[in-house]
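Blackboard transcription, Thursday session:
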Amino acid sequence: MAYNITLIPGDGIGPEVISAAADVIEAAGVHINWEVVEAGIKSIEKEGTPLPDYVIESIKRNRIALKGPLTTPIGGGFRSVNVILRRTFGLYANIRPVKSFDGIKSLHKDINLIIVRENTEDLYTGQERMVDENKAEGIKVITREASERICRFAFHLARDLNRKKVTLVHKANIMKLTDGLFLESGRKISKDYPDLEFEDVIVDAMSMKLVQFPQNYDVIVAPNLYGDILSDLAAGLVGGLGLAPSANIGRDAAIFEPVHGSAPDIANMNIANPVSAMLSGAMMLKHIGELDAALRIEKAISRVLKDEINRTMDLGGKLGTKEFTEKVIQEIK
Ligand code: NAI
Ligand code: MG
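(Written on the board underneath:)
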């Protein structure tokens, strides 16, 4: 069976790591007709917009996309295309698994957690304004509907994957109404899952606990901003952003992408670590039902990473993006 899937190469290191992901998927025996569409900085130059309509149309048609990171200007400039895509397609759940790899130097050895981040609201709705030239304000939006939906998703995922515990992260001691509503929603949904342990932790304490005792966590559910921050923190615990995949899941579409950004500091140098993109591709394969191929990719990556010589520079190795990808492909075959 062949699949039609949208592919957005992205900015910076995006094209390098996404083509590596497409190559290992092909090597694992899954044939995909990639519909390649550009978004981001390149599209501004060519089309005058970072998100041309045909990108939206392509994702609408195929319902699945593999995407590279897109640069978002800091301060002013256009709004994040990532945020717009997530909102346009109602990709309400951002799933970010974080797992220790054998042999990779890190603070801890046995981390195996999943961050489930609410993906459509909180401080990311772009409702900011200058009150006067010396005062800016932003609106934090938390709805019962989105909070219950993401908490249900997290509990459901936990049960599906035989996990034991769901930890809800918040700051409801200070943001009593917004985070209070998120916490209240989680408590309510937890009643439907008596087989799963449920706890809530305040986000600042959570940051410390995650660094000191990450093994204590299983499935973590959080509003948008805390989920964003904690997922980079957690990636740092297992070897860095080069190893962190993610899925953006909605009712009608799903977009798979590495957690990292466009890393302009290392773009076009053949040194980016393509593992996060490859693992995002594996998450995509599981989503479309190609479980065997996904597991083969994951196992091949773990085996290749065991040997320090076989790693990219961010992990202390010497291999370039292309050479590393070639090793993984050989291992798959
Ligand atoms: P970044 O994630 O691009 O880079 C942070 C650091 O990690 C850099 O030192 C980079 O070299 C390193 N790094 C990231 N991925 C790597 C990889 N695969 N292999 C080796 N090293 C890697 O974050 P930064 O620099 O804050 O953001 C750059 C741009 O990316 C910004 O415009 C930001 O808005 C955008 N961004 C886009 C995302 C997306 O499209 N989903 C997510 C995060 C940021
Ligand atoms: Mg982020």
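Lecturer's comment: The CA atoms of residues 209 and 216 lie 9 Å apart.
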